[in-house]
Amino acid sequence: MAFNRKKWELVTKLYKDGLKVTEICHLTNFDRRDVRHVCREYDILGCMREPRKNFYRGSNELRKMAVDDIVLNSLSYAEVTVKYNINRTTLKDWVHLFRNGGYEELFVNRRKARRRGYGKAEEDCENASDRVGETRGRGLSSSCGECAVKKSESLGRGKIRPKTRDWAEAINDLRHEYRLDVLLDIKGMARSTFYYYVKNKQIDRYSGIRKRIREIHAEHAGRYGYRRITSQLKKEGFTINHKTVYKIMRDLGLKNVRRKNKYRSYAGQVGSTAPNIVNRDFSTTGPNQKWTTDVTQISVGTEKCFLSPILDMYNGEIVSYTISDHADLKMVMDMLDKAYEQHRVWEKLLMHSDQGWQYQHYNYQKSLKDHNIVQSMSRKGNCLDNAMMENFFGIMKSELLCPNRFKDMNHFKQELVKYIDYYNNERIKTRLNGMSPVQYRINRANIT
User: Fold this and answer.
1) Which phi and psi (to 5°) does residue 406 adopt?
2) Distances (CA, A) of 358 to 277, 295, 308, 353, 387
3) Are residues 309 and 426 in the same domain?
């Protein structure tokens, strides 16, 4: 656990007051290693140290004193970092430089990336140029050497130093034009090394899966992320981990669409409200036990419309819905009538919603009672109490509204009808064992 300044001061104060490390840990519930480290620093310095700089190069004098304490005086890294108030990683880098090249290497102010093998392609290019001079001295082809230098420069444009495999592939490309022994001599590569990398070329074992991932992503218009694509691949017989799918999608630059935000319908206390019976318990044992509903506004250009659906918490299926240009009571009542027309059977059905004015209306509540439906309402201003409905709205807007362009509102309404049918019958869900809502309901009904 990383300490902030206040925690550091608290541990130091308790230690100064005479408490032991075990007592401080028991009192503050901090990690024992962190507490012991703070107390040890206090014993060495006699006071609390100043904030440490993570990326600190330091003067040559400071570097020399710190390295001498490690190498000559046999002090520990912990003691030296406390003594000079420097970062442990920085100190290790200094010691590494000293052991490789002495004080001369230590005093060269280079970046860490330079010391760890990055950005060294220029050295390879210089070495290649030197070897070109040697080949010319032996009377070999000058054009071969110049071509090798160009190839070396092209490989050296990246930030990371080219690997031996990259050089072998570059030489293999040039061997049809120039003598292989000359190319190997310019690079300084052994013939056995070259043939090893040529014979053992890396094979992309995911080439077929890459192609299928692209197809699935395109079929669903970018609505599937790596989890759903993994489920789809497994349904098709592929054996692959979701982390691998994530890496492949990242390499291919495939991303699922993202969501935007939202309309509120609360208009105060305009009728009677119902208790929060659901109380965020969205679990059910079968269909038609808990339904939820809400209204969302959708804007296309200067036009807007309203969607009012009913969602079954059992499988996330949209039972019925209405699309209207006005958020009025008729829109909500038509939604209920469409649900009743499906002749679904229920014994004790809960209808959950927020405290929007439509759901406080007498006609709406009477319709629920006439059909033996118990009403439940979220707490005021708490959208998480109706999270399943909010989740559907977010998915619909992120997959349909945000990534696409529509000619006008009528065009959007047509696509919305198609999307809801797609959502119910084709779009798979991870929590439904890789099935769509309708498929899951039918499958469970056949099992029981």
Assistant:
1) -125, 145
2) 19, 9, 11, 10, 19
3) yes
CA distances from 69 to 95, 106, 108, 180, 433 (A): 10, 15, 20, 52, 61
Whole-number Å distance between alpha carbons of 91 and 440: 59
Q: Tell whether 165 and 190 lie within a shared domain.
A: yes
Mean pLDDT split into 10-residue runs, the chain, 448 residues: 69 80 81 78 67 58 85 79 77 82 71 42 50 48 54 51 78 83 84 85 77 91 89 91 92 75 52 85 92 92 91 95 92 94 89 90 92 91 89 92 90 95 94 92 87
Q: How many CB atoms lie within 10 A of CB 151?
A: 20
- Does 89 share its domain with 43? yes
Provide the domain count of the chain.
4
Max Cα–Cα distance, the chain, nearest Å: 102
pTM for the structure as a whole: 0.48
Residue span of the structural domain in which 247 resides:
207-252
301 and 405 co-located in one domain: yes
Contact 436, 427 (CB under 8 A): yes
Q: Are residues 236 and 351 in the same domain?
A: no
Is residue 271 situated within a structural domain?
A: no
* CB-based contacts of 136, cutoff 8 Å, min separation 6: 142, 145
